[in-house]
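ligand=flavin-adenine dinucleotide
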Amino acid sequence: MYPANFEYARPSTVEEAIALLGKYGDDAKVLAGGHSLIPAMKLRLARPKVVVDIGRIANLSYIRTDTHGRFAIGAMTTHAEIAASKLLKTKCPLLPETAAHIGDVQVRNKGTIGGSLVHADPAADYPAAMLALNAEMELVGPKGKRVVRVADFFVDLLQSAVGPDEILTEIRVPETSSAVAYIKTEQKASGFALAGVAAVQSLAGFRIGVTGVAPKPYRASAVEHVLAKHKSPKSEEIAQASMLAADGVHLGMDGMRPTGPRGQAGVEAIPIKAPHHVAHRLVVAAEHLSDPRHPRATIARQQDLAAAHHERLR
Ligand SMILES: Cc1cc2nc3c(=O)[nH]c(=O)nc-3n(C[C@H](O)[C@H](O)[C@H](O)COP(=O)(O)OP(=O)(O)OC[C@H]3O[C@@H](n4cnc5c(N)ncnc54)[C@H](O)[C@@H]3O)c2cc1C
């Protein structure tokens, strides 16, 4: 299927792009890697009159250290560049590990971290890692720059904090130890997460992000709280904590109700490093909560997603 007709604009600076978004308002859409927007346009779920391609803007694709010792990643950096980054592999290994899980080679070569985060697909991989890393995002709009912490960034299903006249320009994450993990079970055809869990362990405790299960990604705070009581949690303690994987979380979409005993999948945890152990257990718990193998659940979820696409991407 072909998209409806649209005008194409190719600004060469962020300022030009912002001016175009201001001029065309809701009729305009930013184009980054196109791997979410173009399929939505082909399905006529998105019908922008003007597509603002930010792919030729210089300096939106980079991975570097900032003055605070964090890692600054340009919004147009592709999943493949993040997966291959030696700097991130050494200093912030959760991001390359997560990026390597996204889609297939073609998706990773074209899709961008900025596009993925702004799109806020409830089954996307990065959001879990962003929450586990306590990332922050820099947005530029007509009034200048503003910084949004990850806790405020994912607003709802397919809705991020980025306004229609704003552009996400940079994502910042801290250095971490190597005690990190991202584990997911995926939808076989697309690779999207049915349940994905990112875990970071530091001296301050665990930070755990979950994606794929609810309308928006969330931190498994109840699990973090229980694990904080253990310096080096044992397998049974992790299994116990994993039962709280969605405690206090609004699962939202129809067909995404818990149907089985939480976290009792009978899958053995992998005794590698604690975060792997934790993420693996939690992914199993999260799977049960979303019950993805239930055909009705999957259909209801797809219908919800299509409706939300229609609403948000018009
Ligand atoms: C077959 C297939 C499999 C996939 N599998 C996975 C998977 O396993 N895991 C996963 O996480 N994702 C998956 N994806 C999605 C993929 O990661 C997309 O690349 C990503 O979601 C969107 O990034 P993009 O650069 O292509 O953005 P685009 O499609 O260009 O844009 C997406 C949305 O974000 C907006 N936007 C983009 N960049 C900016 C910006 N800098 N500022 C403001 N607004 C912006 C656009 O206007 C649009 O609304 C898959 C996609 C496909 C087609």
